[in-house]
Structure prediction request, 192 residues.
Amino acid sequence: MEETPCIKIPFAIGKKIWWTGNGYRTENVVCPECAGYKYVTVIQGNGETYTLDCRCCQLGYDHPLGWIERTIHEHVPTPFIPGRVEISGQHIRYSESGPNATCYSSIDAENLFETEEECAVACEKENKKQAEWEAEREIKNLQGRRKDNAWSVHYWGGIVKRLERELEVTKARLDACGEHKKRGKAKEILEG
Ligand SMILES: [Zn+2]
Prediction:
């Protein structure tokens, strides 16, 4: 008789194991760019200074907030009792919901462990990795926002210069009209 093929699942249904947990929460912290003042001063190479709304803690075109939301990564061993298992290709996922539940969330078997100790090691590794990513992301974000500030000064400064030039040209034209009129009057007087 041929043997029925079977797939070995890593954890038994109904037996308590450990999960690395969803691993994050958010926290509001004082803006690292403006220290909560909501504006920054940009000093250009020529010594001119400009005060701008802080782009780091500004969402879209709203007023700056003075604080930013930071993601804190904190995986902690969390008890988990498998209620159902799903196998799709190489992926094995478990859920705590029963096999008849219509709505459930499932966890990758890679994030589940037999013992709390094993799980704690995995949590620590994951937390370290996430903290490095987060620090890198924050630095990139800050650099991007600084570029925005420098760009704003450059952009608006350019518009001010253009308008000043236009104003000069416009005034000069008006003056020229005045001169013509004056000359015209003088001619009229002479002829008269
Ligand atoms: Zn700020």
Q: What stands out?
A: Helices lie at 116-191. The pocket of zinc ion is lined by residues 31, 33-34, 38, 54, 56-57, 64, 66 (CB under 6 Å). The CA atoms of residues 4 and 87 lie 17 Å apart. Residues 116-191 form the longest helix (76 residues).
